[in-house]
Design a protein that fits this description.
heterodimer, A: 614 residues, alpha+beta, Methylamine Dehydrogenase, Chain H, 2 domains, 4-stranded antiparallel beta sheet, B: mainly alpha, 21 helices
Chain lengths: 614, 422
């Protein structure tokens, strides 16, 4: 059979149309398949999770298990069928396109020997000039585009590094890629650079920063030898809420009756130059508080016996410290965290992220900025010391971490990243009998860390919201609570676990106190409650009317709790409610009482008081 | 590109080495389910690499294809021969080898081999990079004509080509330089193999790709019906290198086998606009020379401004690096740390690294981008400046000649030439 050229062309044209139509149908089917699987993914079938949930409620239901398996099999079949359809459809569509193209090429080549292109209508010579013009336009456009997008894009990493005082490194490969254990480097390694020089009775360290990131440290440290003993710490009042930070004071003969306004049993009263909500700490005859405003961040040292201001020191000229003050709320301020001392030096932290170490005479040992904490109320976590390490809970909106700074040099001994939200609570140090742990509360975790290395020992997720209260501790039990969350009793040890939960009385700012098998809770709605530490059952509650920001402190068989009006309620630490007395300060107060040598020291909104029998 | 894919994985391993080294010591993040039915889990096996013999076979086939297509172009002057060789390349390197290994992607292996002393570039990848360049240096871009599967698939669909105005061709012709610069930048910063990731045709070769990439490939082919080989001419970074080589080729194809009879038949044959017409100098010579001198003087300015503009781009450019992206996510949105579904964040959180370490790492990478931005911008400034110089230089031509840089040696023009070998 002899087929004419025209017939061949017609045949090829029909083949091209049919093949193109076939490819189009395949394309439509593929798109439909795509839309269908996007809208209703077989593997995201919601029925199976619902059935699995039902199964968790009745684990022995064999019918339900069979039903789940059947659904699962069906979902998988649907998924793989869909995959097969896509693959096969793609092949068929491609085949159609190929046939269509070949047919078209045949038609074109059969129609004309030469397949000429459609020429652009250009005038030779002029087109080069036009091209030059457009290359200049486009080149300039690219430059402008690059400059504009460069100016508009913010380098959040750089801002973060400035705020957090992070030093840049040259090569990403040189950054230590430590595991949690490696992060928790032994302290010996970080202090190797300290060269001891004997100078009469004082050992002075000439400090070489352990790494470039420590360049913020400004001065040579003067280090009295030795670490404070536990009895030394307990004899003094070195941290927020006492020697362990748990609200238990070792002092005896604590006063129960005073009146700040009337002058009754007021040994001395001084106005603190700058305001702050940090509670006092005491070592020997020296009492320390901080105060701050937009102009200066100050540490004040008073003679605890006379109230005389012995010295004051400004936390200024610190590298990395912000020029402007971070935004803080009036009820937190710039000097909310309580200081810490080991009797060799005193340490303070401010809402700017400035940490300063001063010797007992007020001479600066070192200072550094940790990066302005991103904290919408203001940094509130107080300091605590374990051996040579100043421990700082630094939970901010950006990240959470527990830091240990060498008390002598300010270098970072270790740093542990925390999977936590922002908090205002403070670390406590407890000896469980087998080891010492530093315990932190935040949202959502209560964590125990090794204070020597920073290694996380345990964590239990049980809190929520903006956590302000620190935890209480007694007899192997940790008590953590927060408003709108719950109060939990956690038995720590080899396998920490929640023993009980309660939610009737919850603190917002005040920290729980655990003593004598009792847990004391002070709420912001003015109720002071006593809970059984073993069971979580309420033993008693007393409504005083005024809110509590201050934390209850145990001393000499009594519990002292100061409300915001300045009244301190003193009750016996017993299962029954026994009020010993209520003493008024004469001004509002949010700080916690501090005890030393038969006196109670209490900071009001404006004044600092020494109270007790003259 | 399988090799390239492997090396891309290697880069990922290097970038997340710490995370993975931690994971090796840690518990399985997704433990296998335990069945009560006695079912035993099969051992996890990795796909075997391609046998080394077959890898060298690929190189041999490339060499043979290059030789054959060069023979068809230079000796046989056969468009049909070139076309069917390209169909073979499409079937073998495209559909059978699924677009991997390929010379275009091998640029990245070579750059990585230069930048990273710990990376040993495989000989096959190096040969895939070098062989087409060597052939181009002597014979023109015969690789584009018949050995490149990406070129072949576009050539087949070039049914109704139109010629684009010269200024559009020139402007779009800047893109391959930018693409090449970006590809080198992202490899040098160990961020990404962008040529492989954004290969529009590999998804078609494999019948498997994200839909957006498949659509991109189909779009290129649809455009390719009217604008011949759009990827080759306006995107291909390897084409830049081939063009540079081909410019110096001593035995480049000619349109006529003997003396040109000025019939002009070939002038409408090239769908790539790669035939230079005979020209005589137009305009006043003095103003032409002045313009040329101005462009020469402005060249350093283009380089400087381009470098500065490139350096300004280092922040947005670096966001394609996964470490930088992750660090920015965590810094700008700290709440992602609590997002159980964000696998990257979860992996980071379980790595033991602090945010500060991650930020330090990201910042160091970003500073590499700053330097890279200067170089990339300077390079683009140089390209723009030299394009202007080239557009204002005048070379007298009396015959129709292939533009050695842009000519893809497809041999279409030979079909049109009535002059036969003497």
């Amino acid at each position: 059979m002899d087929i004419s050229k025209n017939d061949k062309i017609k045949l090829a044209q029909r083949i091209a149309w049919i093949a193109a139509g076939f490819a189009l149908i395949m394309a439509v089917l593929l798109i439909a398949n795509f839309v269908q699987t996007k809208l209703n993914k077989p593997i995201d079938n919601k029925t199976i999770p619902a059935l699995v949930k039902r199964l968790s409620e009745s684990p022995g239901d064999e019918t339900l298990k069979a039903e789940i398996r059947a659904f699962d099999l069906m979902a998988r079949k649907a998924y793989f069928t869909s995959q097969w359809q896509i693959r096969t459809g793609s092949y068929l569509m491609f085949l159609g396109i190929i046939i269509s193209i070949l047919a078209i090429r045949f038609v074109l080549s059969a129609k004309s020997k030469l397949n000429e292109i459609d020429k652009a209508n250009e005038v030779a010579g002029l087109d080069k000039l036009v091209a030059q013009k457009w290359v200049i336009y486009v080149g300039s456009g690219l430059v402008v585009l690059a400059l504009v997008s460069g100016f508009l894009s913010s380098n959040s990493l750089k801002e973060y590094m400035v705020n957090e005082n992070i030093v840049a490194v040259e090569d990403p490969a040189t950054i230590p890629t430590a595991s949690t254990e490696q992060v928790a480097a032994p302290i010996e390694q970080t202090t190797q650079s300290a060269i001891p020089v004997t100078n009469e009775n004082v050992t002075t360290d000439v400090v070489t920063p352990a790494n470039p990131s420590e360049t913020a440290i400004v001065e040579v440290a003067a280090k009295p030898a030795g670490l404070p003993t536990q009895s030394e710490l307990k004899a003094n009042y070195p941290f927020f809420r006492g020697a362990e930070g748990i609200g238990v004071a070792s002092q005896k003969n604590t006063p129960t009756d005073w009146n700040g306004a009337g002058g009754k049993n007021v040994v001395w009263k001084v106005k603190v130059p700058k305001s702050g909500f940090s509670s006092p700490i005491i070592w020997g005859d020296q009492l320390f508080v901080t105060g701050a405003d937009a102009q200066a961040r100050m540490v004040y040292c008073y003679d605890k016996n006379s109230g005389k201001l012995l010295w004051e020191a400004a936390a200024d000229n610190i590298q990395g410290s912000p020029s402007g003050m971070p935004k803080v709320t009036a009820d937190t301020g710039l000097a909310a965290p309580t200081m810490a001392t080991d009797g060799r030096a005193v340490f303070a932290i401010f809402a700017t992220g400035d940490v300063i170490a001063l010797d007992m005479n007020g001479k600066r040992l070192w200072a550094r900025n940790l990066g302005v904490p991103d904290n919408h109320y203001g940094h509130g976590s107080s300091l605590i010391i374990y051996k040579d390490n100043l421990l700082i809970q630094y939970d901010t909106n950006r990240s959470g971490k527990l830091l240990a700074l060498d008390t002598q040099t300010g270098t970072t001994a270790w740093e542990t990243a925390r999977n936590s939200k922002i908090s205002w609570s403070s670390p406590i140090l407890v000896n469980t009998g087998s080891r010492t742990e530093v315990i932190l509360t935040t949202n959502p975790n209560v964590n125990g860390y090794d204070p020597q290395t920073g290694k996380e020992l345990w964590n239990i997720a049980c809190l929520s919201g903006e956590v302000g209260p620190s935890s209480g501790y007694a007899d192997g039990m940790v008590f953590a609570a927060n408003e709108y969350a719950k109060l939990v009793g956690i038995k720590i040890g080899a396998t920490p676990e929640i023993v009980w939960e309660a939610d009737e009385f919850l603190p917002e700012v005040s920290s729980p106190l655990a003593i004598n098998g009792l847990v004391f809770i002070a709420t912001t709605y003015g109720v002071f409650a006593c809970i059984d530490a073993k069971t979580g059952e309420k033993l008693w509650d007393q409504e005083y009317g005024d809110a509590f920001y201050s934390s209850p402190i145990y001393a000499d068989g009594k519990v002292y709790i100061t409300d915001m009006s300045g009244k301190t309620h003193i009750v016996k630490a017993t299962k029954d409610y026994q009020l010993i007395g209520t003493s008024e300060l004469g001004e509002k107060a949010v700080c916690s009482p501090v005890f030393s040598d038969g006196k109670v020291y209490l900071r009001g909104m404006n004044n600092l008081y020494c109270l007790g029998a003259n | 590109m399988r090799l390239i894919k492997q090396y891309f994985l290697l880069i990922s391993v290097m970038l997340y080495g710490t995370i993975q080294s931690f994971a090796a010591d840690a518990k399985q993040r997704f433990p296998k389910p335990e069945f009560d039915s006695g079912y035993t889990q099969p051992q996890t096996t990795a796909a075997s690499p391609r046998m080394i013999f077959l890898e060298y076979l690929d190189v041999l086939i490339l060499l043979v294809v290059l030789s054959v297509v060069t023979w068809f172009v230079l000796k046989k002057r056969s468009r049909k021969g070139v076309f069917w060789t390209s169909v073979f390349s499409l079937l073998y390197f495209g559909f059978y080898r699924e677009g991997c290994i390929c010379s275009i992607g091998s640029i990245q292996n070579v750059v990585l081999g230069i930048i990273d002393p710990t990376y040993a570039i495989p000989l096959t990848a190096l040969l895939f990079f070098l062989l087409p360049l060597i052939f181009s240096l002597f014979f023109g871009r015969t690789f584009c004509a018949g050995a490149c599967p990406l070129g072949a698939i576009q050539d087949i669909v070039a049914i109704r080509p139109i010629e684009l105005p010269k200024w559009i061709q020139k402007v779009l012709g800047l893109i391959p330089y930018l693409y090449l610069g970006l590809a080198v930048l992202y490899v040098a910063t160990k961020s990404e193999f962008i040529i492989c990731r954004y290969d529009p045709f590999v998804g078609l070769f494999r019948f498997d790709a994200p839909y957006n990439m498949l659509i991109l490939g189909i779009l290129f082919l649809a455009v390719g019906v009217f604008v011949a080989r759009p990827y080759c001419r306006f995107f291909c970074p390897y084409g830049v290198l081939l063009g540079w080589m081909s410019k110096f080729s001593s035995r480049h194809m000619t349109i006529t086998p003997a003396a040109c009879i000025q019939c002009k038949l070939c002038s409408n044959s090239c769908p790539f606009g790669a035939i230079d017409e005979p020209v005589a100098e137009t305009g006043k010579r003095r103003s032409n020379v002045n313009r040329l001198m101005t462009y020469f003087v402005l060249l350093p300015l283009w380089i400087g401004i381009g470098g500065f503009a490139g350096s300004m781009m280092h922040v947005p450019l670096s966001r394609f690096n996964q470490t930088v992206y992750l660090a920015e996510q965590i810094v700008e949105h700290p709440e992602v740390k609590n997002d159980a579904k964000n696998i990257d964040v979860r992996t980071f959180m379980s790595s033991g690294k602090s945010t500060e370490q991650l930020v330090q790492e990201a910042d160091a990478i970003r500073r590499q981008f700053y330097l890279g931005g200067w170089l990339l911008g300077g390079f683009m400034g140089l390209v723009i400046g030299t394009s202007l110089i080239n557009l204002s230089t005048f070379r007298r031509r009396t015959d129709w000649e292939p533009n050695k840089t842009n000519c893809l040696s497809c041999a279409r023009c030979m079909d049109y030439c009535p002059v036969k070998k003497e």
